[in-house]
Each structure stands twice: as C-alpha cells, then as structure tokens.
Write a structure and sequence with these properties.
alpha/beta
Length: 575
C-alpha cells in the first residue's frame, strides 16, 4: 500500500474526533477493518481487504464507524429516525430514546406531524395542547445537555407536514438566532401543494380529518421561501417523491435523518460510507471503472457487516434495522473528480459525466448486494414480487431485476448521498456532491480557524496564468448549476441526496421561488443557503488580495511548518 500522510489540519481533526489515544491513521484503519471483519468466517482475509481500501482512502466509513469501532461503547450508526405519537407517553418515550441516541453519537430525525396543534383540547387528561413547537423546543433544551459520542454536538431534525395547523409558527421557529440550535427544521410539501401555489389556489390546514381554515397557498409558500433565503431554514422535502421507497410494502417511509440523505421508517438507522472519487482517476482524465467496481463490492459488504457488528442501545432499533438491512453508500470529492477531467461543474458535460458515474455506482451496489444475498441471505422482509414492484427497482436493467427475483438481495436500499462534512476533511477533498466552496476560504469550526487555498488556485496566482473555465467554485455557479447536478444524482439514488444550493447574497425571493417550483418536482429534498444569511458562518470566501498577501509571506509560513502551523497536501494548503 502507498504511504498515506494526513495533512496537519486533517490530523488535528482525526485526533480530536476519531483516533484513540496515540493512534495513527494506519492504526485507525486497521482497528476499523478488524472490528467490521470479525463476523466473517475468514476474518483475516476481510480485515486485510477492508484495511487496504480504508487506509488508501478509496472508501471512507462514516464518522461514527471511524470513531467507535473497537470501543466498548458508542454506536457505529450515524443517525436515526423516529416518528413521535400524540400522547404524553409517546412524547416521553421519544425524548428518552433521543437522549440515549444522542449520547451514543447519533443524530435523530423526528417527524412531528402527529402532534396536535396548539390550543387543541386534551380530552383524556383535560386542558389544552401547548403545541408541537413547544415540544420541539423542549427536545432542543434536552439536546443542549448532551455532548454526543464524546466530541459531537447532539444533532436533530424536525419534520412537519405542510397541512398541519401549526405550520406557520413552525416555519418561524428559528428566525431568532440561537433558537433550536440543535435542530434543522424541514417542511414536508407535496405535488398537490406545489400545484396549488402555481395555480394561486387556497390551501386547507387539517389535523386528523378536521379542518382548521385556509390560507392562500402562495402566501404560505412565500413565507417558506423568505425564511429559506433569509435564515437558511426551513428545508423542504417533497413527500410525493420522498415516500416512494423499496420498502413500501412492509415498512413505509415516515421521515429522515438530520441531514436528509436517508428515507427511513420509524426506528430505522443510517449505516453510511462514501467512495472517494478523485482516487479513481488515472492519467488525470480517465475513470478507473475496474478499481471503482472492486471498491464498491467491498464497501457494500463492509456496510452490511456494520449492521451486525454494531452495539444497539435500543432493542427496537436493532430489530427494525435488521428487518430491511438498509445501508447508504455515497461519494465525495466530486469537484476534484471533475477538475481532473477539466469539466466545469454544472455544465452539460458535467451532468453527463455524473450521470454515467452515479448510474454505474447504482448498478454495482445492487449487483453486489444480490451476490451477498446468495452467500448470506436476503433481508428478512424480502418478497421478490412486491420488492420488484418498486418504481426504483423497475428502472434497473431487466437482467439485474431477474437476478434479484431469483436470488434475492441483501439490503432493501443501498445508497445515500450524505454531506460527508468532516470525513472529507481527512482527505482534503470537497464534501459530498458539492462544488468547491471557494478557491480560497477561511473555515471556522470547533477545531479552530484556518485558511484553505486550493493548490490549483495558488498555482494560477503565482504563475499569472488565467483561471480555466472549468476551475470553478460555488461563487462562479448559478443556482441552476447546483440543481441540475442534484437532479441527476437523485434520479439514480434509491434514498435521498443531501446537498446545499449555495446562493449569492443578491438572490431575490422571486428568483428562488421560480427555481424551487421548477426543480422540487424532481427532487426529494432541497436545502439552500444564501451567503451571509446566518451568523457564525463556517465557510467564508477569502479575497484574491488576501491570498496574494498570504503568498507574499509564504516563506515565513513555511518556517512555521516546523511548528505544525502549515501543511500543503493534495487537496488544500492550510494555515
């Protein structure tokens, strides 16, 4: 294996979040591989195979796997979903379970649509409901007491249906900075609502078959769009698309995880890992499809093993997670993948490149989950007739569908395009399917404050050459570029896609509304972020003047390298 050396910043992140005391990356990769391979009949063989793809950073397990493998406590699953019921007992149980999962290092997505609206009578016990917003506030207060998994803030997502009578108060729940700091909030819209907006029709609020008045759909839509633009929330989930899933016949989807990349039923979990795309480029232009298929095959097996190796803190989640055996293979480093091919993110050529790539990944994961079923058995709820009626399965190649009917499949769903925010920092590549955020940027997070200068940008500035048209960051792109890339990913992903549509500070509400009304029909979820719309922004673009000043003093910075202040790697230069 080639020698892998973490950059100085990556090492800081690894030591703070993932390593055991005194570990190196080599030690960490071996610890993870050995833990996940222990259930194999030939555990040494798969220890070696898993270790190779992790150490070389061809495949990166999710953060909880990297951190908690081999530890006595801590979940290997990044996140969970629960649907809360409309009784004090169910609310209390959900809060209890959330505290347990947060303490284990897992994020929790909670669908709150079944909670009665504020002011509704409580017939059994008397009095009136304080409303769903009051309960999400109490959950947020509880989350504030948890430092999950030893080095991670408790994370949660609230999801409420667009018809809920309290939806307006919910949409406004985070407009005050610092409120619900542990929660992302999303609204579950649907195609009927989008059509009502376009036709300027009224929208009726309902709860348990009772109507609570109407509002103009455009007014409600306008509030959502305004808050998305000005406060970065709520996100929207198109339930007409989101609820369609391979598990429709035995475990209908009821919500998602905190980042929105998984479609889950209540009690289900996220078992995640990602392909590191730039590592499959050969000759600076070609994709090594043979190597990619090899790594995908091992990654599917690895993630399936995680479901059995994991220590479940809640028995119900153990049972439900094994019923469908969902896993979520994703990818990151897409911007560097396209840079190597000299293809501009968001262009027609980029969309075509991405479609070829994501379709290949989809076909491989289903092929190798089917082969794994021959060896280890299908997921317990597999029914060949019902499973293959899924709209997603119907789009697979006929030969592969026939094999699934004949031999079964190990995992009900296999893909999830996660944001990969922290694990991508270990490789110095861009996260998820995002473009390069900025050619030079200042990052402020829990690890500290540091500058990133992309090596290509440094090369351009020092040589005086012009910036190639393909070397773009989020500030060079239109919202349409983002949407087109997300749409093609969603087309071939059986779960969902976590992506941020970055907007310039000049974007108007009308521009965003027009875009959302066009693209929401093709997506499961949308999150937008207008530059500067939130206090404490983590990523901040650095001006060319600041970079040039930095480069003038490069020699002094190199001197500081001896003290561990600067490290240049394949992805970025870091201060």
């Amino acid at each position: 294996m080639k020698k892998v050396i973490l950059s100085q910043n990556a090492l800081k992140i690894a030591q703070q979040r993932y390593f055991m005391e005194g570990e190196t990356w080599e030690d960490c990769a071996l610890r993870v591989a050995r833990t996940v391979a222990q259930i194999e009949s030939n555990s040494q063989k798969y220890t070696d195979l898993f270790n190779e793809i992790i150490y070389n950073m061809d495949f990166m397990p999710a953060g909880r796997i990297l951190r908690n493998c081999g530890r006595q406590k801590g979940s290997l699953l990044n996140c969970f979903h629960m649907k809360i019921g409309d009784s004090i007992e169910e609310i209390g149980q959900c809060l209890k379970d959330s505290l347990i999962l947060w303490s284990e290092g897992g994020g929790v997505g909670i669908t709150l649509s079944d909670l009665r609206p504020k002011g509704d009578p409580i017939l059994g016990k008397g009095g009136k409901s304080s409303g769903l917003v009051s309960f999400i506030e109490s959950f947020d207060s509880a989350a504030n007491t948890i430092e999950s998994g030893g080095a991670r803030r408790a994370a949660a997502l609230g999801l409420v249906d667009i018809s809920h009578p309290e939806i307006i108060d919910y949409i406004d729940a985070k407009i005050t900075h610092g409120k619900l700091s542990h929660f992302n909030i999303s609204v579950a819209i649907n195609n009927d609502f989008l059509e009502a907006v376009e036709a300027d029709k009224p929208w009726t609020f309902k709860f348990k078959h009772k109507e609570y008045g109407t509002v103009k759909a455009r007014d409600l839509w306008g509030k959502i769009v305004s808050n998305m633009l000005n406060y970065a929330e709520p996100g929207i989930i198109n339930w007409s698309n989101f609820s369609k899933n391979n598990t429709w016949y035995f475990s209908p989807v009821t919500g998602t995880n905190p980042c929105g990349e998984t479609c889950l039923s209540s009690g289900e979990s996220c078992c995640l890992g990602s392909i590191v795309l730039p590592n499959f480029i050969t000759g600076n232009v070609n994709t090594n499809w043979k190597k990619l298929e090899y790594v995908i095959k091992l990654a599917v097996r690895f993630l399936d093993n995680v479901l059995d190796v994991n220590k479940y803190a809640i028995k119900e989640i153990d049972l439900i997670s094994h019923k469908a055996r969902r896993i979520g293979l994703g990818m990151f480093g897409l911007s560097e993948y396209l840079f190597a091919k000299k293809v501009r993110y968001g262009s027609e050529k980029a969309v075509a490149e991405l479609e070829r790539l994501i379709k290949f990944i989809r076909d491989c994961v289903y092929k190798y989950s089917m082969q794994l079923a021959v060896e280890k058995g299908s997921f317990p709820a597999f029914d060949p007739i019902q499973y293959c009626k899924s709209s997603f399965i119907r789009k697979l190649q006929p030969g592969l569908r026939m094999d699934i009917k004949k031999y079964g499949i190990r995992n009900a769903t296999l893909m999830a395009l996660a944001p990969t925010g922290t694990i991508s920092l270990l490789t110095d590549y861009s996260s998820g399917i995002e473009p390069l955020f900025a050619k030079a940027m200042l990052r402020k997070d829990r690890v500290g404050e540091r500058m990133y200068i992309h090596p290509k940008y440094k090369e351009i500035l020092t040589s005086g050459e012009e910036i190639p048209e393909w070397f773009v960051d989020a500030y060079d792109l239109s919202p349409k570029d983002h949407f087109e890339m997300q749409v093609v990913c969603q087309k071939y992903c059986d779960s969902s896609v976590s992506k941020t549509i970055n907007l310039s500070s000049e974007t108007t509400e009308q521009e965003l509304s027009d875009l959302l009304l066009e693209y929401a029909y093709d997506l499961k979820g949308v999150t937008v972020y207008r530059d500067g719309s939130r206090e404490g922004q983590i990523l901040n673009k650095v001006s060319e003047e600041m970079v040039l000043e930095y480069l003038k003093n490069e020699h002094s910075h190199e001197e500081n390298l001896r003290d561990g202040d600067l490290k240049c790697s394949s992805g970025v230069c870091e201060l």
